[in-house]
Amino acid sequence: MVKKKAKITGHIINRRARHDYAVGDEFLLGIVLTGAETKSLRRGHGHLRGAYITVKDGEPWLFNATINGDTGIPISESDQTRSRKLLAKKREIQQLVSAKQQGTTIVPLEILTRGRYIKVRIAIARGKKNYDKRQTLKARDQARDIRANPSLL
Q: Is there a contact between 109 and 47 (Cβ–Cβ < 8 Å)?
């Protein structure tokens, strides 16, 4: 019998980020992981729900991102949501610090696992109000209706 390979996804997406925030500039940063975390992320066992980024002592850190273990990949409960250091250039760190001082939020959008290195795509974002979210949903529904039935124009 042929063994089935584990389902390998190319990235882990934070779906709530684009719904809750108006996304601005995006950056692609590296992340410091252990071997078990790397293997688990490549198999798609993680999520960015509720994750956020802060700059501590001149270094960006990813907080509250969960990386779950799998069979044969033990990750303890305390290590699943530990803070993880992000790897960025000085210029990028300065942009993140200045954006944070202006009152914007830095949110992780996705974790890319396709290439040799695992990267995190982050963005400088501003929180949306409830009416902004409703307008976005309404525009999306209207565009979907027009695509489905072009005679509505």
A: no
* pTM for the predicted model, two decimal places: 0.78
> Whole-angstrom Cα distance, residue 88 to residue 94?
10
Check: CB of residue 125 under 8 Å from CB of residue 143: no
Q: How far is CA 79 from the centre of its chain?
A: 18
Q: Is the pLDDT of residue 18 over 90?
A: no
Instruction: Report whether 124 contacts 137 (CB < 8 A).
Output: no
Structure tokens at 80: 């699943």
What domains, with CATH codes, occur in the chain? 11-128 (2.40.280.10)
Q: d(Cα 84, Cα 118) in Å, to the nearest integer?
A: 13
